[in-house]
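Section 3.1: Structural characterization of target chains.
Under the original work plan, the team committed to producing a structural model for every single-chain target entering the pipeline before any wet-lab resources were allocated. The record below documents one such target. The sequence was received from the expression subgroup and is listed exactly as submitted; it comprises 310 residues.
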Amino acid sequence: MDMAVSMAKERAARISVISNTLLVVLKVLVGIIMGSVSVISEGIHSGLDLLAALIAYFSVKKAGEPADEIHPYGHGKYENVSGTVEALLIIVAALYIIYEGVRKLTVGVEVEALGLGMGVMGLSALVNFFVSRYLFRVAKETDSVALEADALHLRTDVYTSLGVLAGLVAIKVTGVTILDPIIAIVMALMILQAAYKLTKGAISDIIDTRLPDEEQAIIRNVLECCCDEYLEYHKLRTRKAGSERYIDLHLVVPKERPVSEVHALCDQIEADIKNSLPNTHTLIHIEPCTNMGCVKCDECGKIEGSQRRE
């Protein structure tokens, strides 16, 4: 992995750790002062955000390490594991918030210092909005699963903070304190939805799901651009580990074609794919044409190979 890319990932993850640390301390202290379950729940949510940010930081740091003897394909899947762990943390946070909300609905709730709570929620939403936007940008530029998961985590925090802020405003206007745990439960449902998206995205790469259709189309387009240089291709397989893509395929060429020409063709295909899809590693297995009755292998092969197969 490029050193500049690795450093950009680490810098973004470090910023997330710092911002979450400050928000956790602030929310929990204010929530205790207020006696507000929604504010305390937001503090707990931010605590899990902090843990998730730490996991993301160490995962992108580890994923940036080069391949070694034990990990010949590199360390990219550390990012996928990080995304899965973050999803589990989100689920834990949501279940706890639901538990506290139901408990408060049962025993009742008193909320104080509403102005202080509204200020903290507004500040939290503002900070997490800008940090998550920065993380989304870096995640897109570096194709980082861990940073994307962390950004989604923080963006969820923006919505929940705004929800709590709206609830505190409603309590201040109406005096109905039971709105506090109700808002907390609604918040938890939003968090569970985010957890589902995170889990689905992270696990798909761990179990070697193929690349998305749009990326598959890019690969096929590269192969079609030089289709006059080979007879056909098949057994195209793709997968992803962190931000690293892995592609392998079988390429059929005329049996009399010089090895040096075939090697140059493979180099060109690999370079074109990498230019179109960054962080891509392509492995091409060459097969000679087995049509023994073919007098002019290259001519008839091009005709028969005009229909590509997977």
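Strands lie at 232-241, 244-253, 280-288.
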